[in-house]
């Protein structure tokens, strides 16, 4: 079945697609495998919000309408939400940052690769567009607390080709809820760590359009 990816379609259906929150998300997962996980991320305890996010951008379980495929990811660039569809009629909703105006790339993708504390290299287009910002990283940047991809990254593919789009963490949690990136979808490190554990390779990710 072909998915319509216009903003009009998403906004018209979103009221029925996702209802009011069912419950506040529980405390984030405690298990860590890397020193960076313990040193950098600040896991939620009893609903705490150490990043000062607006409450609506905290992980929240919501109901969704029938017909959505369990396991899929949907990104609403207007409301700045990512939804991970469950198999019980609910979805986990996370606040995100999305691409700046003109840099969003709506479409249907699959998760073709996953990485923990990934390295990062700006694309040629990024370097050409803003050399004063990105040229210094043309040789790549090792994974770590200051890396723009944060604690985890889901690499979005079209077929067998890397789209260069990512769903990833960020060292800039204050950007959540804004249009700040060069096209990728950002989550707070703690939140992308939660999502990462629930998303297998091959997961479908639908980035909806902000335009009609």
**Assembly of the depicted chains:** single chain
What is the count of distinct domains?
A: 1
Under CATH at level 1, the class stands as: Mainly Beta
Helicity level, as a percent range?
10-25%
User: Can you say what the CATH homologous superfamily is?
Assistant: L,D-transpeptidase catalytic domain-like
Spatial strand sequence of the major β-sheet: 1-2-5-4-3-12-7-8-9-11
Strand residues, percent? 25-35%
Globally, the shape reads globular
Series of H and E elements? HEHEEEEEEHHEEEEHE
The class by helix and strand makeup works out as: alpha+beta
Chain-averaged pLDDT: 83
Question: Describe the biggest sheet?
Answer: 10 strands, mixed
Tally of DSSP β-strands: 12
Low-confidence stretches: 8-13, 23-34
Q: Tell me the distance between the termini.
A: 21 Å
Task: Fill in the CATH topology.
Answer: L,D-transpeptidase catalytic domain-like
Radius of gyration: 16 Å
DSSP summary: helix tally = 5
Please identify, by name, the CATH architecture. Answer: Beta Barrel
How would you describe this protein?
Residues about 10-15 and about 25-35 have low confidence and may be disordered. The protein is about 15% helix and about 30% strand. The protein has helices spanning about 5-15, 35-40, 125-130, 130-135, 190-200; strands at about 20-25, 60-65, 75, 80-85, 90-95, 100, 105-115, 150-160, 160-170, 180, 185, 205. It has a ten-stranded mixed β-sheet. It has a single domain, classed as L,D-transpeptidase catalytic domain-like, CATH 2.40.440. The longest helix has 11 residues, at about 5-15. A hairpin with a 4-residue loop joins β4 and β5. It has about 210 residues and is α+β, with helices and mostly antiparallel strands.
